[in-house]
Amino acid sequence: MFKCSTINTITAKINNVILVGDELGIREIIKKGSHTHDEAYRAIASNDKFFEDVVRYTRYAAVCEEILQFTPKILTLISFAMYNLCKHPEYLKPLRDGNLKSGGVLFNHQNNELPLLNSFMKETARMNPITIFGMPRKVMTPFTFSDSTHVPAKNWIVVPQQCMMKDPRHYPQPQTFDGFPFVTHGDEGAVSESRLSHPSWRFPFWGSVKQACPARFYVTDMTKMIVSQFIMNFDFKLADENVPGSFAWGPLRVPHPYLAFLLKERDAGLVPEDY
What we know:
alpha+beta; two-stranded antiparallel sheet; 10 strands; 14% strand; disordered N terminus
């Protein structure tokens, strides 16, 4: 049984949003609030009074729908991260040490702790972008770009994110998994150069920079928490070393259906009480 008190707490909060929402009858927007979606996600995960305001004044249905919509992305990232940890067990010790040094990952920490785990997860996302292209747009009227490229109407334009995130001009040895490329080491230890939740034109995992996925903070924090729990509480390995990590289904790159992990709970003396 995978025990995770932190995840249970967050799940309870989300359920509480739904229960309170039902109680107040906000199935639709009953009042336009001034809070953005990003603020709503953070409020749902925090313990401050703003949580209550969000329940009453945000677009309750839309926020909850988007949270549930991105649950598959969370599970996919976790599966790929577990696979990479099994294939590269040398990363387990530094990740565990980083967790111990930080005191654990909390959902209301503004997403700036655990730089090693953050880098590991971002590299996992880079190597496994889930879809080979993103941001599809249908051309409604003929359009000509500044470099004279002409696109007739009724065509589709997409961003080839898999190619962009494996471009050797931007990433040294792009086909090789490197767990800690997004950190620098200084006098105070590891520091994040860029975080998983940060979109860029070199990392279009979340869409465009100007209109990035509003659920990226929720997905990032939840994924880091769950993977952190696996790292700290369990030893694990692949059930079958011959099963590949992913398979292609159209434009999707998803965890292989036969991918499975064998877990063994670590000795209690090795796991801090906070975990």
